[in-house]
């Protein structure tokens, strides 16, 4: 198992070095993406059970996406559904392609064993991604989202965020795929919620940017190391990061709270905001300090 993982790690490093040596030219990118896709297809074809699991997960996500479009058509009209369709369809297609692309990372943490199924925990993570795709599709389509709708999707995402980790630990199905997908789903969901709050004049632009820096700082550090130095980094969770995530989650819930809870929200808004900003400042720095020295190949 370890030899297989090392070979796959070296394959990624070789691709990155070739991309860098060709100075990131368009042709180099075509070769990079082509060889990566062929590797993904090879992994899927060599593991038919895992491939079928991906197909079932994709079917479930597709059915739920169609249901979301149908609900939008019924309650918001055909014009809103039509504006929602392009962005939503792109996000869902990207999400499922990303899953297929990274099936080789569905390896059990510690043992390196390639698991034969996507699993319940990862499926919950992809459901959170679907909720984020729905909100991002509305943003791209120029459709306003009321606070109650954003809150409903956000709470659903928060529930899956709690459950996927718990289930993965209990079933011993913690994988690098799940770790990466969890971070991506969180980023897309918080990105969508932040822009909706800015769009609805609930959150000032500067504060929204600060909120997103929690994800952008580690992401930019990873991309720089990945493409410029051919050295993928592993950014794991930290205690500071978990506290920052919890504080930001609570702050979003407070400012999205409906009328009956408005008085309570007004009382705790400022102290919660201050705590959130402090934690969001410390968390990315703690993540870099703790995880950059422990960088490992994906």
Report on this structure.
This protein is an all-alpha fold. It is 79% helix and 0% strand. Helix 6 (147-170) packs antiparallel against helix 9.
Mean pLDDT: 84
Number of helices: 10
Structural class: mainly alpha
List segments where confidence is low: pLDDT < 50 over at least 5 consecutive residues. Answer: 293-298
CA-CA gap between termini: 14 Å
Secondary-structure element pattern, one letter each: HHHHHHHHHH
The percentage helix is over 70%
Q: How would you characterize the largest beta sheet?
A: none
**What Rg, in angstroms, do the CA atoms define?**
20 Å
Q: How much of the sequence is in beta strands?
A: under 5%
Shape field: globular
Work out the number of β strands. 0
In short:
The protein is mainly alpha-helical and 298 residues long. The chain is 79% helix and 0% strand. It contains 10 helices and no strands.
């Amino acid at each position: 198992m370890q030899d297989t993982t090392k070979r796959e790690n070296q394959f990624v490093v070789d691709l990155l070095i070739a991309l860098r040596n060709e100075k990131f030219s368009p042709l180099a990118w075509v070769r990079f993406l082509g060889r990566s896709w062929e590797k993904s297809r090879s992994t899927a074809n060599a593991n038919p059970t895992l491939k079928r699991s991906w197909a079932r997960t994709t079917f479930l996500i597709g059915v739920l996406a169609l249901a979301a479009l149908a609900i939008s058509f019924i309650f918001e009209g055909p014009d809103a559904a039509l504006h929602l369709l392009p962005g939503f369809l792109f996000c869902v297609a990207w999400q499922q392609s990303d899953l297929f692309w990274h099936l080789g990372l569905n390896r059990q943490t510690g043992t390196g064993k390639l698991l034969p199924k996507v699993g319940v925990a990862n499926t919950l993570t992809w459901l959170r991604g679907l909720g984020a795709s729905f909100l991002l599709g509305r943003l791209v389509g120029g459709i306003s989202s009321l606070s109650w709708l954003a809150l409903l999707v956000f709470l659903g995402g928060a529930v899956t965020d709690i459950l996927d980790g718990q289930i993965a630990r209990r079933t011993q199905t913690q994988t690098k795929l799940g770790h990466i997908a969890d971070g991506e789903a969180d980023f897309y969901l918080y990105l969508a919620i932040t822009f909706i709050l800015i769009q609805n004049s609930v959150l000032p632009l500067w504060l929204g940017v600060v909120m997103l820096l929690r994800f952008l700082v580690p992401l930019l550090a990873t991309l720089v190391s990945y493409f410029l130095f051919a050295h993928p980094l592993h950014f794991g969770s930290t205690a500071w990061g978990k506290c920052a995530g919890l504080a930001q989650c609570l702050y979003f819930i407070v400012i999205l709270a409906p009328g009956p809870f408005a008085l309570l929200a007004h009382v705790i808004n400022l102290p919660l905001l201050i705590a959130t900003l402090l934690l969001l400042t410390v968390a990315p720095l703690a993540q870099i300090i703790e995880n950059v020295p422990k960088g490992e190949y994906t």
